[in-house]
Amino acid sequence: MLEFIGAEPDLHEALGQRLSDPGVERVSLKDCRLLSPLPNPGKIICLGLNYADHAKEGGHAVPDYPALFLRAASSMIGPKDPMILPECSEQLDYEAELVIVVGRRCRHVAAADAGSVIFGYTAFNDGSIREYQRLTAQWTAGKNFDGTGALGPCIVTADELPQEASGLRIQTRLNGKIMQDSNTDQMIFSSFRTIEILSQIMTLEPGDLIAMGTPRGVGHARRPQVWMRDGDTVEVEIEGIGTISNPVVAERISA
Fold it and tell me: Distance (Å, rounded) from C-alpha 186 to C-alpha 184?
């Protein structure tokens, strides 16, 4: 997938024509195990506090510049993979997020031109160990536990969605109960503006992922607080993209 994303547009077109050929052998989705749509991303760049209602529920001011942090690829999982509740903490929280998949190497991209460098979008559950997230002023520890970042179920190319992937319903469901229910048009920094901001800082490359933050309703802000437990099922759904579902499984450390 990483090679395909970085390929020339004529290869994308050729593959699309081949897949639309009725003579191509097909396998039913129910007979497949879906892997992560991008298991080897280059960079995973995450925005925090990108929905005003989420910033407020956590006691933060609405930002005039995005809070940024990085995730490691080793923290990521795909559809149906177990989301790991670590042995060292009970505070595993969910976060439904839209993710931009960068399609072209770029730097200093104006927001008006950002659409030309986006390959597509996918869904993300930015599982967070809140206890460790708050041990320091930086969020890196709580955002990089193994098996906590669920990506998928697929990448939808940008032309299949509204411009900037705006106006899409975004939800988290925990054991079937709706916990987050919002819309991507509520993001403070839009997809195109985010590309502009990040490309001022660094070169963006094909296959880089940009997680666009989560709306209100996270577990740590609830009273009483809600943490994901061993045996739970958590789902993140984004309109037009699909649902990524993961079982929550407690970490077992070998003696």
Answer: 5
Residue 119 phi, psi (nearest 5) = -80, -45
Q: What residues pair up with 118 in beta bridges, in sequence order?
A: 102
Model confidence pLDDT, tens digit, residues 175-195: 999 999 999 999 999 999 999
Residue type at position 140:
T
For residue 228, what are its two tokens? 């994901």
At residue 142, φ and ψ (nearest 5 deg) are -75, -15
The per-residue pLDDT for range 196-247, each reduced to its tens digit, is 999 999 999 999 999 999 999 999 999 999 999 999 999 999 999 999 999 9
Q: State the Cα torsion 6-11-17-23 to the nearest 10°.
A: -100
Q: From 153, 148, 154, 142, select the one nearest 73 (Cα to Cα).
A: 148
